[in-house]
Structures are given as structure tokens and as C-alpha cells.
Amino acid sequence: MLIAALKPHQLQAFLAISDHGSIRAAARALFISQPGLTRTLRELESELGVPLVLRGTAGIELTAYGRAFKLRATRLLEDMLRAREELLQMRNSAAGTVRIGVSSLPSACVLPGAFVEFRRLVPDAILECLDGLLPVGLPLLRSGELDMLLTTTVEEIDEPDLRAEKIFTASYHVAARASHPKSGATSLAELMDDEWLAWDRTSLTALLEPAGLRPPVRVHPVRSFDTALALALNADLLFFVSRDWLEKTESATSLKVLEIREPLPLVTGYAIVRKDAQLTPACLQFLACVRDAAAGFMAHSTRPKSC
């Protein structure tokens, strides 16, 4: 059986069954009959030559074959849809949809300028954005659900399947609400008994290691920057943030940047795509707009300008 023999509707059927856990729920989600969905699944299993699901009283469970195939099926379906969209874009002067994941700093400092220019150059294209940091976006990028990630990290990105282009740098600072008892602190060591917000302890460790410090005992993992901001504005919590982001975020005016003496880490902004991805014309155009907007941000920022 050749992969080329697989049809998009077969992959959609299998993935819907996997996601919903039953034929009935999947058929309802796809707006097709249960017998029709069952027939499509049987055709797919016949072409693959292996059983993909087990049917029981508790619903549908994937076999070992099914679990392995699900990863491939997601990528295959996304690539099929991208291929079709790329041809449509070529025919219709690059109109189409670009799907990106974007974290808080590039969202505030790079994305607005890139979007304005992209809309001017490709007025019929659609930009679909998902908020999220690197751990959220990478699986979606690898599965083909996203075309690109605009994100930041203090560590080098060296993944064999990804092309990570450095587009800007910025310096990190410690921030808290103005009424925080330690708002006058000048050393990180003074803050190790306080409560912090971070993606997780590992990420906070990477930020504190250059100062020879371990992460504080009380670290609240937060997966959303909006949530971190809301918490920091209403409780005595500390977190690392870029001053550039603070300057562009109106709700952050009640936060104070602590005047820490120690050198604080630089954060690098990346535009990340899959190495094996054939970027659509619209996606290539958007990436060019991102590069231009990032260059403009670096030119006007008072922070370090080397990439």
C-alpha cells in the first residue's frame, strides 16, 4: 500500500474517531452517518493491512498500530491540506491562511508591524494566531498544525528537524507590582525567599543559574502570560519580563521593574519552521514581513541589538 493511496477523508475519519472516542460522536462531528464512517474506517484499515481501533463497550480504543499511525496521520492530513492551499495560493496571487504560534514578546513588539505590512502586500490572506510559549507551540509545529513559531528563549534552539532563525534579542528584568515588599530590592539573592511565577522550575533555573542561584522554593507554574500578568498585578509575586514588552502593554503600567545590580539574561527571539516544510507563498511573504518588523524593533529598542 502506498501512502499516496490514502485519501484525506479517510485520515479525517480516523482522527475524528481517535479524538472523540466513539463512532457515534465522530460521525456527529463530521456530519456523516455512522455506517458511512465505519465503512471509511474499514477501508483505511484494509489499505493499511492492520487494525487501528478496538471496539468495546466503553467505546473506541486505539491499537498499537493506531497510536503509531495517529502521529503520521495528523502530519499527512496537514501536509495534504497545505499542498492544496499552496496550489490555490499560486493560482490566486498568494492568498491563503498562515497559521502561527506566538509568545508574548514577539506578539507585542514584532507581530503588529509584520501584520500591517503582510496585510498590505497580501490583502486576501488570513493570519491565524495561537498564543503560547515554546513548549506549547513545538508539538503543533511538528505535527503541521502551525506553519511557524515566533517565540523567545534564553537557550539556543538546536533541533535537527527545525530551522530556527534568530530575529531579535532583548534583556530580561525582574518585575512585580509597585506595592510588593521587595520592590526596592537590588539583588536577586534578596528575592529567593519570595514567591515567583514561571513557566516551570526548569525555565526559572536557566534564568537564575548565571547568577549562581537556585530557583526559590515557591514557584507557581503559569502557562499563560496573560494569567501571569493578572496574578502579578494582584498579588506579591515576582517574574522575569522584558522591559520592551512592559513599555508596549498598557495594563502593565502598574508593574515596577526592580533595579537589580547583577547582569540579567538576554532573551532571543526566533522564527521557527520545520526543515522539511514547503512553505506556501503567503507564509514566505509573512516570514519576510516578520524579519523586517524585527529589524525595526531592534533599531528602535534601547536594549542590546546583536542577534
Structural features, described:
There is one protein chain. The N and C termini lie far apart (48 Å). Helix 1 (8-20) packs across helix 3 (34-48), helix 2 crosses helix 3 and helix 6 crosses helix 11. The mean pLDDT is 86. The strands form 3 sheets. Strands 3, 4, 5, 6, 9, 10 and 11 form a 7-stranded mixed β-sheet that branches. This protein has a two-stranded antiparallel sheet with strand order 1-2. Strands 7-8 form a two-stranded parallel sheet. Helices cover 44% and strands 21% of the residues. With 307 residues, it is α/β, with parallel strands linked by helices. The chain has 2 domains: 3-87, Arc Repressor Mutant, subunit A; 93-307, D-Maltodextrin-Binding Protein, domain 2 (3-Layer(aba) Sandwich). It has helices spanning 8-20, 23-30, 34-48, 64-91, 104-109, 111-121, 134-143, 201-208, 225-234, 243-248, 281-300; strands spanning 53-56, 59-62, 97-102, 126-131, 148-153, 162-177, 196-198, 219-221, 239-242, 255-257, 266-274.
Defining key terms:
alpha/beta; D-Maltodextrin-Binding Protein, domain 2; two-stranded antiparallel ribbon; 11 helices; globular; Arc Repressor Mutant, subunit A; 307 residues; 7-stranded mixed beta sheet; 44% helix; 11 strands
Task: Compile the SSE list and pairings.
Elements: H1 8-20, H2 23-30, H3 34-48, E1 53-56, E2 59-62, H4 64-91, E3 97-102, H5 104-109, H6 111-121, E4 126-131, H7 134-143, E5 148-153, E6 162-177, E7 196-198, H8 201-208, E8 219-221, H9 225-234, E9 239-242, H10 243-248, E10 255-257, E11 266-274, H11 281-300
Parallel strand pairs: 3-4, 3-5, 7-8
Antiparallel strand pairs: 1-2, 5-11, 6-9, 6-10, 6-11
Helix pairs in contact: 1-2, 1-3, 1-4, 2-3, 6-11
